[in-house]
Amino acid sequence: MLGPNKIHYGWIVVGITCLVVLTGAGVRSSPGILMVPLENEFGWSRATIGLAVSINLILYGCIGPFAAAIMERVGVRRAVVYALVLVAAGVAATSMMQYAWQLILMWGFVVGAGTGFLATVLSATVAARWFTARRGLVVGILSGGGATGQLLFLPAMATIASHFGWRTTVLAIAAVACAVIPLVLLFMRDRPSDVGLMPYGETGTPAAEPKPAQGNPIALAFGALRDASRIRDIWILAATYFVCGASTNGLIGTHLIPACIDHGFSEITGAALLATMGVFNFIGTTSAGWLADRFDNRRLLCSYYGLRGLSLFYLPFSFVDFYTMTLFAVFYGLDWFATVSPTVRLITEKVGREKAGMVYGWVFTAHQLGGASAALFGGVLRVNFGGYMEAFMLSGLLCLIAAVAVLFIGTGRKSATPAVAAA
Fold this sequence. Notes:
CATH architecture: Up-down Bundle
CATH superfamily: MFS general substrate transporter like domains
Number of domains: 1
Low-confidence stretches: 414-423
Strand content: under 5%
Number of strands: 0
Structural class: mainly alpha
Order of helices and strands: HHHHHHHHHHHHHHHHH
CATH class: Mainly Alpha
Oligomer: single chain
CATH topology: Growth Hormone, Chain: A
Radius of gyration: 20 Å
Distance between the termini: 14 Å
Number of helices: 17
Largest sheet: none
Helix content: over 70%
């Protein structure tokens, strides 16, 4: 039993997981800084560089359900350590590249696969295992770790890139990933039973440590997909999450800095805008987690997608001065990852705690396919039309459609009761 003043170990796991997610988010946000330097040095088009980012985002998403299955098989701690090693090696190797295919191989495939283990699938798995009460809040905090990753990484890496070059930047990113590994080994634990505890919000005697999931992780992941594909609401969540990825990581995360440069602003200014989004994203995402424990998650998602669509309509007209751009960054930042907590809760209600991580992994795959599409076609539209107006407007329209679609979740049936106990 925990004493009245003793912190539940789950919160320590949340802290380490937040640091891991922060690192992964910092790595993923780096292409926006590297795009123009690579274009200037090698002569590669933004569509070519966008292809590498697109592959990265596809793998980052597609590996999610298999990452969740591997975490069930070998444990969260070992899986995260392997992923950090892969990310560090892939990022460091890009410092030696000379050809576009090397960028696609290392940043697209290697880094994409590694960061897939450090995505919100990890957050969903940790929240489901360690928390019964406050699960939505935990997902919000961990999702906010991605915002903090941008806050810490982007200005620092943009400054390093402008003063020491992009090669020094990628080596610095690799060093940060390596520095996180010892902390994971020391403090991360797989389940509450590893430290003799029940999940936060439950009482009683801890059950015996469960045996690792049996079977091939690929078979486990596809089994979860088979079961989830029979639920209409999961399809709606996947479709709207596709739009979420297209409007965030794929378009804004990849192309906002180049768009700023197109309008005469420096890459440091663009990075500062993304960092501003990171600050307000942490506030918005944490608040969204708190709200997800208390209100109708469908209506929350409707609000988030609707407000995001309106902000994207405003963006092309904000490139007047830094203040109008900052207004967009604040408004958009509050909404960036706000969709995560309601989506995770709705999935958990539909499929249960045991399969929530893998099913969320498949839904997150749709998110990253959307991001990959926007990363690629945002560059294509920029090449064909000479600007990003069309890309921003199309993304805003898709967000408004998603805002309507989520209201159809659970229609015709009584919504499931959230599986949350009082702390």
